[in-house]
Write a structure and sequence with these properties.
- With 502 residues, this protein is α/β, with parallel strands linked by helices.
- It has a domain of 250 residues: Rossmann fold (3-Layer(aba) Sandwich).
- It is built from 22 helices and 16 strands.
- A six-stranded mixed β-sheet has the order 4-5-15-10-11-14, sandwiched between helices.
- Strand 6, helix 7 and strand 7 form a beta-alpha-beta unit.
- Helix 3 crosses helix 11, helix 4 packs antiparallel against helix 6 and helix 11 crosses helix 12.
- The longest helix is centred in the middle third of the chain and has 20 residues.
- It is globular, with a radius of gyration of 21 Å.
- The mean pLDDT is 95.
- It binds pyridoxal-5'-phosphate.
- Pyridoxal-5'-phosphate binds next to helix 12.
Length: 502
């Protein structure tokens, strides 16, 4: 029997594609190159007061059950139990820290100390459950392009998970030394890590090409493999990210920091647009989010887009101290475009074709209306460093550069005097531990630190911030490098064959 509440997943690029949640998770990307989008956004069916009494897992279940409607309660609860456990160094999973008038939602307490863990610790379980539900016999091969943090979080999530293999491509010169070390020391027979000679967009485009190569898929299918994606385009990544916005609100309510129903703003340091899209979905579920503030670094495509309605990737790619946001094509924006076009795949496809053809598109006036709750700001490298210094000097709280971009964006929003922004509760998505970007962080605090070695800096940061060195960093101090493979952008297919022995 058809369930009224069932959410099905359509493609952003053509009509007539409609799959279940578990199928969408398995496929990652739709066959027509589109992304899967829910056919409607479900409304929260628990009151905020009820949610305020729950722990992280409880809230996660209440959100995920509404989107992943073909999973049983038992299946979902099992996935959640296995994901949000002692891998996180705090029972609350995502603590809220009040500093300088804002609430920093720390999403970096998982095994790789960046927010990608929030979704990637559950994705392997959702995926293997989905495979079982759909009677898949093939081994699932995860292909991932990473701008630094996804790679390690995906490796950590999938390492040793039976029935899966994972290959990660990262820009050889585009990630921090600690990010690289985290990846190339990854253990597990089913893992493969490759540095490509190109930037993140090259890696992402290469992976997308492999996904849409039907001949290759057929060839590998005969050998018992099938591709899936752990990138933030997978709805199995997106849905778990909706949960922590609901959780943040529930925590504020529980602690008496916000009144039930009182609006809050959220600020998200943005790259591929997955995290902020999750906040948008949370808002559409009925969570009292007012403004969505999209923070960019000097790769400010999104800032320009929100100001002008023109998305234009034809510009210089800048390497910054917030590498996970060094992105000129924000894949998940396609979902928002589709929604503001009135869930119209034709209109969306036209724009996406313009993007891949001319590298640019312009949305119509009626579509811009759909963006009225979004604000874009960006922070230069100097502004980002100054924000790290400001927080440290004023209250001793140390931000990583990504979070600092968001924090600086919030200052600009407050200064702009838009609405009554200053008087609203604001949650900043704090996406990485400062220990992941120690050199940039310490240099921002004081230039003198640039003379120190990487791990000396780690110990010094621990001392001045009064925070223990996270386990994830301790582990890589001495871990041996086990992945040394590098390749050119056009060799990615051959490299995948090599890994699979196919
Ligand atoms: C991935 C990442 C981002 C960007 O998130 P998107 O969902 O891609 O917009 C921001 N900060 C950090 C630390 C990240 O790892």
């Amino acid at each position: 029997m058809e369930n009224d509440m069932e959410v099905r997943y359509n493609s952003t690029r053509s009509r007539g594609i409609s799959v279940t949640a578990s199928q969408a998770i398995l496929k990652g990307l739709s066959e027509d190159g589109g992304l899967f989008v829910p056919d409607h956004i479900p409304a929260l069916d628990r009151s905020l007061q009820e949610l305020a009494q729950m722990d992280y897992r409880g809230v996660a279940y209440e959100v995920m059950k509404l989107f992943l409607t073909d999973f049983t309660e038992q299946e979902l609860r099992d996935c959640i139990e296995r994901a949000y456990d002692e891998k996180f160094d705090t029972e609350v999973i995502a603590p809220l820290v009040e500093a300088q008038g804002a609430y920093y939602l720390e999403l970096f307490h998982g095994s790789t100390i960046a927010f990608k863990d929030m979704a990637l610790s559950i994705l392997p379980h959702l995926l293997t459950t989905a495979a079982r539900k759909n009677h898949i016999q093939n081994e699932i091969v995860i292909l991932t392009a990473t701008s630094g943090d996804t790679g390690k979080a995906a490796l950590a999530g999938f390492a040793g998970v039976e029935g899966t293999r994972i290959a990660v491509f990262y820009p050889k010169d585009g990630v921090s030394p600690i990010q690289e070390k985290q990846m190339v020391t990854q253990k597990g027979d089913n893992t493969f890590v490759v540095g490509i000679h190109g930037n993140f967009d090259d890696a992402q485009t290469g992976v997308k090409k492999l996904f849409s190569d039907r001949e290759f898929a057929g060839e590998l299918g005969e050998k018992g493999f099938q591709f899936s994606s752990a990138n933030s385009i997978n709805i199995g990544r997106l849905v778990p990210q909706v949960c922590y916005y609901v959780y943040a609100y529930a925590r504020l309510l529980k602690e008496g920091k916000i009144a039930e129903g009182e609006p809050m703003d959220v600020v998200v340091p943005t790259g591929n647009f997955g995290n902020i899209l999750a906040a948008y979905y949370a808002k559409r579920m009925g969570l009292p989010i007012d403004k969505l503030i999209c923070a960019s670094n000097e790769n400010k495509v999104l800032y320009d887009f929100f100001r002008t309605g023109v998305y234009d990737r034809n510009r210089k790619f800048v390497l910054t101290s917030s590498p996970s946001m060094d992105i000129l094509i924000s894949s998940n924006l396609e979902r928002l475009i589709y929604h503001i076009a009135g869930d119209d795949p034709e209109r969306n496809r036209e724009l996406m074709e313009a993007l891949s053809g001319q590298g640019r598109y312009e949305i119509s006036a009626d579509m811009r209306e759909g963006l009225r709750d979004f604000f874009g700001y960006y922070a230069s490298e100097e502004e980002t460093a100054a924000e790290i210094r400001r927080l440290y000097e004023n209250c001793g709280y140390v931000l990583d550069p990504h979070t600092a971009v968001a924090s600086a964006a919030l200052q600009k929003h407050w200064e702009s005097g838009t609405g009554d922004a200053q008087h609203k509760k604001t949650v900043i998505a704090s996406t990485a531990s400062p220990f992941k970007f120690t050199r940039s962080v310490m240099k921002a605090i004081d230039e003198k630190y640039d003379a120190m070695e990487d791990f000396e800096l780690v110990d010094e940061l621990s001392r001045i911030a009064g925070v223990n060195v996270p386990r994830a960093i301790e582990e890589i101090r001495t871990a041996p490098v086990v992945h040394r493979r590098q390749c050119e952008v056009d060799e990615m297919k051959a490299v995948v064959r090599e890994f699979l022995g196919a």
